[in-house]
Write the structure tokens for this entry.
Amino acid sequence: MSRTARVVWDDALTSYNFGPSHPMAPVRVELTMALARDLGVLDKVELAGCVPATDDELALVHRPSYVEAVKRVSASGQPDPGAGLGTIDNPAFKGVHEASALIAGASLAAARAVWEGTAEHAVNVAGGLHHAMPAAASGFCVYNDPALAIAWLLRQGARRIAYVDVDVHHGDGVQAAFYDDPRVLTISLHESPRTLFPGTGFPEETGADGTAVNVALPAGCGDAGWLRAFHAIVPPLVREFAPEFMVTQHGCDSHALDPLANLMLSLDGQRAAYAALHRLAHEEAGGRWIAVGGGGYELVQVVPRAWTHLIAEAAGHPVDPATPTPQSWRQYVRDRTGETAPLTMTDGRNAEFRDLSGGYDPADPIDRAVMATRNAVFPLHGLDPMP
């Protein structure tokens, strides 16, 4: 399907580092790029660098006073509780502005490439910092790069953008940025806010004309239920919305091994979601697709394989799940982390699911979650909520 895919990368993106005990260790993106390189995936894409987002670009989403506060923390390393920096989730560190602005700049570079047509798809695996708010850091996120990419596209003249967020946590910062903007459809599939941070993302949060869409899935949901929910919500809404661009966030913390959440997806289920989003981008957005990373805290067993599959999918050259991981990469993992790397690019699951066309089961908590969302937003788009 793909014609040209670009991966935005600079080794300095690993400078977004909250310290050795923080779950969001930058080694996860380092290992991702190493795996993609050793598997030959990066040979199938254009690699491009990036520059930090400017203050004017950051102001598309963030208040200038907040950016100035981040700069002060960046220079001193001292906390600023009012800016959300210096917390357990978002420790203060010297260089935080520069590191965060570079991640934002990488997602802006991805958006620019797709807007200008120099790439059909563009990927920033270091991005996806979807919790950052206009005036505060939140949930490991300082500057909200997916929201900035969307805002930049709107400023260029884009009229309709669909944002799909498959991170286990609600994409609250992106939703907040566009909650009253009917030009942006935000869809977030996440663990129920009753059991997981940030405590938002209920189906009744519907935004402007139903353009905020939230699928709150029960803890324990695995591949079959998650994919059933995805296909019951995402394709019909994206098709009805008819976006010009798709921006997708690919937090892989929905995996069963992730230490910070409670969904039970496999790598194979996540890979199936990437393929489905790729198809939708071609079917409904002329192939214009910007993909970013996000959460994911199983640093060796999950993140590198998941996002290598994402890059390969965007490149139009998916990696066979049975492919062994290269011995060179396994040795690199051991040298870098002391851990034993996974042997193949699969968890050995089939990622099969039943779609909703056969009806729904009101006793099934996943089907109840799906129907809560369909009932809340489908009528606002002229769609029948019933299967």
